[in-house]
């Protein structure tokens, strides 16, 4: 299978993760969520505007991939001084190692100016605080096979497949239990052998092509979210 795109991490599907900072009476409310394309990223911005319609700024950044060779990156300062909000937020997303990710930081102005350096620090730390909390999945191209098993044998065979490092990504219970298996490219022969051994030759894995598959990952992310109020 030539030209396999490299794997990458992205936020797990679900509602936005939120994080809030208050600096010199200004509130910074960050949302971070999955965005698989530009339209979804802009929907997150629209949702923040709708949730906080009286806020002065809704700054944003996103990186969308969708399996592309070159991810699309965008950012917006939304009225803040140029380079003090969107770009620092984009730098946080880049540093997270994730793609298909969007961030919005809404600011309620507290009446005290923070200066350019203070704004960069505040927007960076608000975005980082939310990004740190985001549950992640790893997305990668994997080969797929299907195997049909009698219901009485399905649980035992599934356990043996998982012990062998073969992921079961879908199960269809009908007249028989139909399992969709995912594994790294080039491992079809090993999967065939594991299925044959687990079923004593009674079942055979059949190729189902390849597709993007998500698996959960645990990432130890440490982000400094302390803000120097004097900046």
TrEMBL record:
Stretches assigned to the Impact N-terminal domain: 24-129
Superkingdom: Bacteria
Organism of provenance: Corynebacterium mycetoides
Residue numbers spanned by region Disordered: 68-88
One annotated Gene Ontology cellular component of this protein: cytoplasm
InterPro entries for the chain: Impact, Impact_N, Impact_N_sf, Ribosomal_Su5_D2-typ_SF, UPF0029_Impact_C, UPF0029_Impact_CS
PANTHER family xref list: IMPACT FAMILY MEMBER YIGZ, IMPACT-RELATED
PROSITE patterns for this protein: UPF0029 (PS00910)
Alphabetical list of Pfam families matching this protein: DUF1949 (PF09186), Impact_N (PF01205)
Domain UPF0029: 147-201
Protein name: Uncharacterized protein, YigZ family
Record-annotated membrane-spanning stretches: none
Taxonomic path: Bacteria, Bacillati, Actinomycetota, Actinomycetes, Mycobacteriales
GO BP: any one term: regulation of translational initiation
